[in-house]
C-alpha cells in the first residue's frame, strides 16, 4: 500500500526539553489512522509537525513524496491548501459567521464568484449536518456543533488529507459518537486519508484502520487496529485495559522530593 | 566569590539572549508586515480592502469624539498656561503663536498617538492575542492564510490613513480650544488671534506633525501585533500582553518623537 505520510527520525524540542525522540512511522494512503498515547506523549506535537505548524530540529516528513520539513513558506501554503485540519477547540474565527468561516479558504485561494462560493458553503454545512446555521456566530453554538462547523471549513477546499486533533475532547459520549460517525462517513464517501489524534478508546475502536501509538516521545506501536487489539506489549495492554502506570516513588525518593533536593 | 561572578554573568547572559530572541521575533514581524503591505500587492496579492475599511471605522471614525474633546481641552489648557507667563509681559496675543505651534508640531501628534495606542493598539494586541490563545492563528496558517497579511496589514493600512486624519482633527480643534478660551476668558480680540495664528503657523509645522503621526501609526500597529502574537495560551496572558502593548507603544512613540523632533530641528 502506498504511504501518504512518511515520518523518519523526527526530533523536536520545546526549549531544552526533548519532546519527540526520533519518531519513524508511515501512514498509508486512504486509511483512517489514529495517533494514540497518553497525555503529554507528544501526539499533538507530532500533529503540528504534520500540518507544518512546527519545524523539527532534525528528521524528515514526506507527504505524498515531498519533504515538508524543508519546504519554503510558499510551497508549504500550497500543501496546506490540499489538507484540512480540525483543531481541538474547532478554532473557528469568532468574528465571522459559520458561512463566512467556511467560505474563508475559498475566498482566499480561489477565484470563484460569490454565488458559487455560497452554494459550496451550503453543501459543506449540509455535509456535516448544519444546514440553516450559516448565519450563526461560533459563540451561539454548542461544542459539538462548533466541531462540525470546523470540519465543514476543513473540507471546504476538498482536501486529500484531513487531520483531527482530539475530535471528541470535551464532548458528551453521544455527541462524540456522532462525530465519529461523521468522520467514518466522510472517509467512506470521499476516500481521503484521515489522521486522528485521540486517546478515547471508543473512538479508536470505531474509526481506526491503522494505529500509531506514541509513548514519551517515541513510537511504541505501529500496525492495524486488529494487531493493536491483540498486541501483547505491556504499554499497549496498559492503554487498552486502562491500567495506571506503576508508581515510581520509593520512600527514599519521596523524602528527596519533599526535602527539595 | 567565583560563584557570585558566575551567577551574575550567567543571569546577564541569559537576559541578553532572551532580549536578542525578542528582537529577532520583532524583526521577523516587521519584515513580514512590510512584505505583505508593500511587496505582495505588486505580486498580485492585494490587501483585504473590506477588512481595511472596517478597521478604519473602528480605529478612526469611532475615535473622533474622544480626540475632539481632548483636543479642545488641551488647546484651552495650553492657552491658560501660556497666558500665566505671557501676561507678565503684556504679550497676551502671543498665546495664539504658542498654542498654534505647540499643538501642530507636538501635542497634536503625540496626544493623538497616546489615545490611539490606548484605544486601538490595545485592541489589536487583545484581538490577536485571544485568537492566538484559541488556536485561530494556527487555523489560519493551516488554511494557507498568512496571519500577518490577514490580521495585521488591514490594521496598519487603516491606521496609516486614520492617524494623520485624527491628528489633523486634533490640531484644528486644539487651536479652536485655545481661541475659544483666549477670546472669552483672556479678552483677546478674536480677529487678531486668528491673524496671529495664521502668521505664526507655517506649512512646515503641519507637515512635520503629520509625518510624525504617520510614523506613530506604524509603531502602534506593529507593537500591538507583536504583543498579540507573543501570547501562547490563557486569558491572563492576553491581559498582560495588552497592557504591555500600551506601555511599549507609548514608550516607542515618545522615543521616536524625540528622534523626529531632533531631525526636524536640524534639517528644516
Short descriptors:
heterodimer; A: 261 residues; alpha/beta; four-stranded antiparallel beta sheet; 10 helices; B: 268 residues; mainly alpha; globular
Plain-language structure description:
- The complex is a heterodimer of chains A (261) and B (268).
- Chain A is of the alpha/beta class and 261 residues long.
- Helix content of chain A is 39%, strand content 25%.
- In chain A, strands 6-7-8-3-9-10 form a six-stranded mixed sheet.
- In chain A, helix 3 packs parallel to helix 5, helix 4 (114-127) packs across helix 5 (143-154) and helix 6 (173-190) runs parallel beside helix 7.
- The model of chain A has no long low-confidence stretch (mean pLDDT 88).
- Chain B has helices at 2-39, 49-59, 64-86, 95-133, 136-142, 147-184, 190-200, 203-229, 235-267.
- The N and C termini of chain B lie far apart (56 Å).
- Classes of the chains: A alpha/beta (261), B mainly alpha (268).
- Chain A binds chain B through residues 48, 51-53, 73, 76-81, 83, 85, 87-89, 91-94, 104-105, 108-109, 153, 157, and chain B through 131, 134-136, 138-146.
Gross geometry of chain B: globular
Q: Gyration radius of chain B, to the nearest Å?
A: 22 Å
Order of helices and strands of chain A: EEEHEEHEHHHEHEHEEHHH
- Average pLDDT confidence of chain B is 92
Poorly predicted runs of chain B: none
Order of helices and strands of chain B: HHHHHHHHH
Strand content of chain A: 15-25%
What structural class should be given to the helix and strand makeup of chain A?
Answer: alpha/beta
Number of helices of chain B: 9
The most extensive contact between chains is:
A-B, 26 and 13 residues
The spatial strand order of the largest sheet of chain A comes to: 6-7-8-3-9-10
Radius of gyration of chain A: 20 Å
List the helices and strands and how they pair.
The complex is a heterodimer of chains A (261) and B (268).
Chain A: E1 3-14, E2 17-28, E3 32-36, H1 43-50, E4 58-63, E5 66-67, H2 73-81, E6 83-86, H3 98-109, H4 114-127, H5 143-154, E7 161-165, H6 173-190, E8 193-197, H7 201-207, E9 210-215, E10 218-224, H8 225-230, H9 234-240, H10 251-259
Parallel strand pairs in A: 3-8, 3-9, 6-7, 7-8
Antiparallel strand pairs in A: 1-2, 1-4, 4-5, 9-10
Helix pairs in contact in A: 3-4, 3-5, 4-5, 6-7
Chain B: H1 2-39, H2 49-59, H3 64-86, H4 95-133, H5 136-142, H6 147-184, H7 190-200, H8 203-229, H9 235-267
Helix pairs in contact in B: 1-6, 2-6, 3-4, 3-6, 4-6, 4-7, 4-8, 4-9, 6-7, 6-8, 8-9
Amino acid at each position: 500500500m502506498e504511504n501518504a505520510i512518511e515520518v523518519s527520525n523526527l526530533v523536536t524540542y520545546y526549549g531544552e526539553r526533548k519532546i519527540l525522540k526520533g519518531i519513524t512511522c508511515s501512514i498509508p494512503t486512504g486509511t483512517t489512522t489514529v495517533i494514540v498515547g497518553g497525555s503529554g506523549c507528544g501526539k499533538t506535537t507530532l500533529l503540528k509537525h504534520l500540518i507544518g505548524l512546527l519545524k523539527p530540529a532534525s528528521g524528515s516528513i514526506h507527504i505524498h513524496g515531498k519533504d515538508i520539513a524543508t519546504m519554503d513558506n510558499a510551497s508549504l501554503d500550497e500543501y496546506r491548501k490540499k489538507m484540512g485540519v480540525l483543531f481541538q477547540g474547532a478554532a473557528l474565527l469568532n468574528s465571522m459567521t459559520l458561512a463566512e468561516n467556511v467560505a474563508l479558504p475559498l475566498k482566499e485561494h480561489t477565484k470563484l464568484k460569490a454565488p458559487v462560493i455560497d452554494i459550496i458553503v451550503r453543501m459543506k454545512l449540509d455535509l456535516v449536518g448544519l444546514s440553516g446555521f450559516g448565519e450563526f456566530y461560533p459563540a451561539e453554538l454548542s461544542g459539538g456543533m462548533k466541531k462540525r462547523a470546523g470540519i465543514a471549513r476543513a473540507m471546504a477546499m476538498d482536501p486529500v488529507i484531513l487531520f483531527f486533533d482530539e475530535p471528541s475532547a470535551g464532548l458528551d459520549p453521544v455527541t462524540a459518537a456522532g462525530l465519529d460517525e461523521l468522520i467514518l462517513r466522510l472517509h467512506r464517501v470521499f476516500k481521503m486519508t484521515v489522521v486522528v489524534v485521540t486517546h478515547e478508546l471508543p473512538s479508536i475502536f470505531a474509526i481506526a484502520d491503522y494505529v500509531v501509538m506514541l509513548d514519551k516521545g517515541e513510537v511504541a506501536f505501529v500496525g492495524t487496529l486488529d494487531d493493536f487489539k491483540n498486541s501483547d506489549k505491556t504499554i499497549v495492554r496498559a492503554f487498552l485495559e486502562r491500567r495506571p502506570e506503576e508508581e515510581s516513588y520509593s520512600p527514599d525518593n519521596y523524602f528527596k522530593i519533599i526535602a527539595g533536593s | 566569590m567565583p560563584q557570585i561572578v558566575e551567577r551574575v554573568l550567567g543571569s546577564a547572559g541569559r537576559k541578553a539572549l532572551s532580549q536578542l530572541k525578542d528582537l529577532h521575533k520583532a524583526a521577523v514581524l516587521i519584515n513580514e508586515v512590510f512584505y505583505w503591505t508593500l511587496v505582495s500587492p505588486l505580486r498580485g496579492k492585494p490587501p483585504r480592502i473590506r477588512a481595511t475599511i472596517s478597521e478604519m471605522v473602528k480605529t478612526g471614525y469611532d475615535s473622533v469624539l474622544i480626540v475632539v474633546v481632548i483636543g479642545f481641552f488641551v488647546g484651552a489648557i495650553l492657552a491658560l498656561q501660556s497666558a500665566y507667563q505671557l501676561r507678565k509681559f503684556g504679550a497676551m496675543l502671543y498665546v495664539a503663536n504658542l498654542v498654534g505651534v505647540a499643538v501642530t508640531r507636538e501635542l497634536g501628534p503625540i496626544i493623538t498617538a497616546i489615545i490611539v495606542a490606548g484605544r486601538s493598539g490595545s485592541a489589536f494586541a487583545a484581538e490577536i492575542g485571544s485568537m492566538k490563545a484559541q488556536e485561530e492563528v494556527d487555523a489560519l496558517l493551516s488554511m494557507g492564510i498568512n496571519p500577518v497579511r490577514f490580521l495585521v496589514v488591514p490594521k496598519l493600512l487603516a491606521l496609516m490613513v486614520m492617524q494623520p486624519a485624527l491628528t489633523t482633527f486634533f490640531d484644528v480643534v486644539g487651536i479652536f480650544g485655545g481661541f475659544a478660551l483666549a477670546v472669552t476668558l483672556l479678552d483677546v480680540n478674536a480677529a487678531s488671534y486668528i491673524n496671529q495664528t495664521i502668521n505664526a503657523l507655517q506649512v512646515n509645522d503641519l507637515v512635520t506633525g503629520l509625518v510624525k503621526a504617520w510614523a506613530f501609526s506604524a509603531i502602534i500597529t506593529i507593537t500591538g501585533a507583536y504583543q498579540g502574537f507573543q501570547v501562547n495560551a490563557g486569558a491572563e496572558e492576553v491581559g498582560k500582553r495588552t497592557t504591555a502593548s500600551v506601555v511599549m507603544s507609548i514608550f516607542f512613540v515618545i522615543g521616536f518623537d524625540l528622534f523626529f523632533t531632533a531631525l526636524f530641528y536640524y534639517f528644516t
